[in-house]
Amino acid sequence: MKENNSLPLIMMHDVEYVYSNGTVALKKVSLNINKGEFVAIMGQNGAGKTTLIRTFNGLIRPTKGEVFLEGENIDSKTIATLSKKVGIIFQNPTHQLFSNTVEDEIKFSLKNLNLDREEIQIKVDKVLEEFNLEKYRKRSPLSLSGGESKKIAIASIICRDPEILVFDEPTLGQDAKEIRFLVKLIHNELKKGKTIIMVTHSVEFTIENSPRTVLMSGGRIIADGPTKNILTNEFLVEKSSLIMPQIYQLRIELQKIGIDVPKEVVKEQEMINFLNNYLENKTITIPEERL
User: Fold this and answer.
1) Structure confidence at residue 287 (pLDDT)
2) 159 and 87 in contact (C-beta within 8 Å)?
3) Alpha-carbon distance 279 to 270, whole Å?
4) Long-range pairs of 90-96 with CB within 8 A, sequence gap ≥ 24
5) What local confidence, expressed as pLDDT, does residue 291 receive?
6) What is the rounded CA–CA span in Å between residue 120 and residue 115?
7) What is the pLDDT of residues 184-217, one digit of tens each?
8) d(CA 177, CA 180)
9) More confident residue, 255 or 214
10) 222 and 236 in contact (C-beta within 8 Å)?
11) What's the maximum distance between 2 C-alpha atoms anywhere in the chain?
12) Which residues pair with 69 in a beta bridge?
């Protein structure tokens, strides 16, 4: 199949995958992802999320079914070729960091781009500055904190400028400052036309940032659509072993005291704006038994 700009950037058709021990990880998964989208993939442990994203760059080859990238079947493509277009940041950064220093880690990531030594050094210096990693230039990546190691892993992929960025649980173990950095990074990459795919358990992060959510359970996709619809559906959230977003839970509690919050209010700032407008005109009366 030849490249066609009208086609989705990634197309999966009836993809199945069975591990060597007999575990069936993917069951007839079909999924389309368009260029420039930000898609969250969610579900309980063992749902097939990590297996799914590893088919995007050939780390895992489907037992059955087909995966297309830019209209071309990736079956005949090497991992090295696919990795130039699809950059995956693993959940555990130690699985992809192995150089002696942070600087060498970035250099190694750039070596397959046919750049001369001077161009590589310029890119290394730039990415270390952008990610605030200059002070760790000569440190071992594995000697740093989990947050900093994860940032190095992200930097080592982004410096190659792949068209598709895939994150596996990037918010896990991260503090508020690191998550703000991640949000800013993602939005900057989206502005460049990049496609972002993120595996995550964080309903709060997803509902605040990702327009589209794919829910998985038992190796299948059970729901795919606007995040505000998916993550406020109690049946789907329970089926995926997730929890309802805090703003949704707050809306339910407010309704119990007579404050009717519109269903469209699903984000933190939306709730703040609603309550500010409400309080300009009314007083909240809390029943005595709730005090």
Assistant:
1) 62
2) no
3) 14
4) 90/153, 90/168, 91/50, 91/168, 91/169, 91/172, 91/199, 93/141, 93/146, 93/149, 93/150, 93/152, 93/153, 94/142, 94/149, 96/153, 96/156
5) 47
6) 6
7) 999 999 999 999 999 999 999 999 999 999 999 9
8) 5
9) 214
10) yes
11) 73
12) 10, 72
Q: Which two tokens stand for residue 53?
A: 């994203």
Q: At which residue do the structure tokens 């329970």 appear? A: 238
Look up residue 166 and give its two tokens. Answer: 């895939």
Contact 51, 77 (CB under 8 A): no
Length of the chain as a residue count: 291
Structure tokens at 235: 């049946």
Pair 95, 89: CB distance under 8 Å: no
**Tens digit of each residue's pLDDT (9 = 90 or more) over 127-142:** 999 999 999 999 998 8
Strands 195-199 and 38-43: parallel
Residue whose structure tokens are 């998550």: 179
Residue at 136: amino acid letter: Y
